[in-house]
Amino acid sequence: MESTRQKKVGRLVQKELAEIFRIETRNMFRGNMITPTVVRMSPDLMLAKVYLSIFPSEKQDEVIETVNSTSGEIRYYLGKKIGKQVKSIPELAFFIDDSLDYAERIDNLLNS
Predict the structure, then answer these.
(1) Pairing relation of β-strands 33-41 and 91-96?
(2) pTM of the model
């Protein structure tokens, strides 16, 4: 169970990462829309597990590779935005959020 502090910092990180993916890193991920859907913080607030929804979904694997390889730069941008609000900037671990694909697959099975 996440504490209130973990939830607050998670929401802050999610909001700022959405802005970073929209503006700062636009040229890194040409033609791909990346949205952080869930951020789970470790109890010590030093690790953020970020689940990303990537559109178009055909390029998910190569985009998540690119995101992971540039996580240091993304963390730098995050630090510039939330550095005054948190004690330390968390390490970022990115994962693919495939819950929408899973829901679509279930819906197709039910409609068949």
Answers:
(1) unpaired
(2) 0.86
Q: Catalogue all structural domains in the chain, each as residue range(s) with its CATH number.
A: 4-111 (3.30.300.20)
Query: 4 forms bridges with which residues in the sheet?
Result: none
C-beta of residue 91 within 8 angstroms of C-beta of residue 47: yes
Instruction: Report d(CA 55, CA 31) in Å as an integer.
Output: 9
Per-residue model confidence as pLDDT tens digits over 29-87: 777 889 999 999 999 999 999 999 988 878 888 889 999 999 999 999 999 999 999 99
> Could you give the CA distance from residue 13 to residue 58 in angstroms, rounded to a whole number?
26
The angle formed by the CA atoms of residues 48, 101 and 97, to the nearest 5 degrees, is 5
